[in-house]
Amino acid sequence: MPDRRGYGEACAVAHALDAIGDRWALLVVRELRLGPKRYSDLQASLPGAGPNVLSRRLRELEESGVLRRRVLPPPAGARVYELTPWGAELEPVFRALARWGIGSPVPRRGRLSADSIMLGLRTFFDNEAATDPARRWTALYEFRLDQDVYRLRVVDGRIEELIRGDTGGAADVVVAGSSTAVQQALEGDIGSAVTITGDREALNRLLDAAGARV
Amino acid sequence: MPDRRGYGEACAVAHALDAIGDRWALLVVRELRLGPKRYSDLQASLPGAGPNVLSRRLRELEESGVLRRRVLPPPAGARVYELTPWGAELEPVFRALARWGIGSPVPRRGRLSADSIMLGLRTFFDNEAATDPARRWTALYEFRLDQDVYRLRVVDGRIEELIRGDTGGAADVVVAGSSTAVQQALEGDIGSAVTITGDREALNRLLDAAGARV
DNA sequence: CCGCATCCCCAAAGATACTG
DNA sequence: CAGTATCTTTGGGGATGCGG
Lengths: 214, 214
Description:
The structure is a homodimer.
Chain A: H1 12-20, H2 25-31, E1 37-38, H3 39-45, H4 51-63, E2 67-71, E3 79-83, H5 85-88, H6 91-101, H7 114-124, E4 139-145, E5 148-155, E6 158-164, E7 173-177, H8 179-186, E8 194-198, H9 200-209
Parallel strand pairs in A: 4-7
Antiparallel strand pairs in A: 1-3, 2-3, 4-5, 5-6, 7-8
The first copy, chain A, binds a DNA duplex through residues 5, 22-24, 38-40, 43, 48-56, 78-79.
């Protein structure tokens, strides 16, 4: 008899699903892809998941080695959840899932969280295009969506860094606005309330390389 | 309000999970990766899933465009389930999941189905090694596991074909045995009851390229 | 037979309230 | 802030049965 409700198969796919196949599990992991978060942050990012479900998923994901709890050093002292190295290796899974999901015959609808917008940019960014000399540029971007700040660094046409945190004023471009406005802008609504400061050409290169999909 | 129990997000990952995130859904798809199957075949391959769950998943997967029902031409006349082109594009997802799952800190245990053994060979086969001239070989393999027969073709060090069906006697090697015996053999149990007929060297190349993992 | 539908039971998810 | 306790609702597991 399997522990909880596993598939009881030795198949590597089934084994992966034993770890991250439960409802909300993979979305919890997604929320940690750009860095550690506290319980309340996760709760706010995943409004559909109740606190009991969330705490249970966190416990199970910790037991299976996908994430770990950590207490930040004083004076912060907050408890945060962060991916283990093995959990961080789920990136190819996210990439494959997102690229598959984007081709769905049934349309996607709904809001994108600030994190999802940034992760989408990275997912659909075409790293291979860096072989084309005309597309090998370098730039530092800062995105300010709702209350969250992200730093994105492109070096020679490749995304080298995407992290929660600011650029200390060193950004070539700063994009600021509500996450909904930025989402609409990426979907082609050119009139939405997004503030762009700095090198617009660098921003266009980024959006072009990402195919303007998120 | 979302249709059934979707995540209600526009995120491409969440949207993918809306389609294949439900319990058993991705394992149903896995069962169809090597070709169409009938309902009873699926039921036999997934003993843990009850008939109600199975038929429901099939209906949902059909609605979301992952698979379709088809009636085989006479005299067979059987109803089979097969992947749509979009469903077949889940291959990178399986590849990423399997390669992640194999690195799990908690050990895998349990039986491998005949299909899973063959799919594992393909998943962990190193296609990139084909750049090495010493590993560019060509061979036709036939595997007979339990009642199932598989044809696997390697051309210039790459797996060009893996299908349910025999080789019409044209195979360079034939591997026959129970799926459990073959699984044990691949796990290193050299004494298990597997019959190998033909070019053993070609078989060794294949197992080596797959890292003997399934 | 094969392809499900129905039924019953339990476990998991959803919602809300509450506590160390 | 970070969860637990509790209750209701929904979905999954397993058996049985029925129509084509």
